[in-house]
Design goal:
The chain is mainly α. It has one domain. It contains six helices and no strands. Helix 1 packs antiparallel against helix 2 and helix 1 packs parallel to helix 3. It is elongated, with a radius of gyration of 20 Å.
Length: about 180
């Protein structure tokens, strides 16, 4: 059993680093192409596909190294571990982006939200728009954004690992 934990750790670290590097690269591309403030649904879908693909590859590689056997708990351990490592690396990128590369990021984001609000609700008064913007700004500090990002990464890592684990599980008959 100790050998399996060491093996799981290796896959979590390797694929977690891969997920983090790919996520940061994707984030840099979004920043350089200037879509980071208003990404279209395509970018969201690509982000999910990256997460799904790398977690699935990690679980599949773990199963292969384990002689073709995989329990649901092992799949969850590997998948969530990969999501955590990748999420931490992506959070570091977000922190650097919001605090050093683009220190005015949150103000820019609030302005984009304000414009969307006016576009969607043209009858709102200036006072209503200001109240809504003020309320939103309380929940949009860099640390809260990073925390929400990490929680999202954990949640989606859990869901993806659960689905992939249920599909790929293959109990080892030698373990009873």
């Amino acid at each position: 059993m100790e050998n399996q934990q060491a093996t799981a750790k290796k896959f979590v670290l390797n694929y977690g680093l891969l997920l983090g590097i790919v996520s940061v690269t994707f984030g840099v591309i979004m920043y350089v192409t200037n879509v980071y403030l208003e990404p279209s649904m395509v970018y969201t879908i690509i982000g999910f596909l990256i997460l799904i693909t790398i977690i699935t590859l990690a679980i599949k590689a773990f199963k292969t190294e384990s002689g073709g056997y995989l329990s649901l708990s092992e799949a969850l351990k590997v998948g969530i571990g990969v999501a955590v490592i990748g999420g931490i690396i992506a959070a570091i990128w977000s922190f650097v982006l919001m605090n050093y590369i683009e220190p005015d990021y949150m103000n820019q984001m609030m302005e984009v939200q304000r414009e969307k609000m006016i576009e969607m609700q043209p009858n709102m008064t200036e006072a209503q728009i200001n109240n809504a913007t003020e309320m939103a700004s309380k929940f949009s500090s860099p640390l809260i954004s990073i925390a929400i990002s990490l929680i999202g990464s954990l949640f989606f890592g859990l869901v993806i690992s659960l689905i992939v684990g249920l599909i790929m599980k293959n109990k080892n008959p030698m373990e009873g």
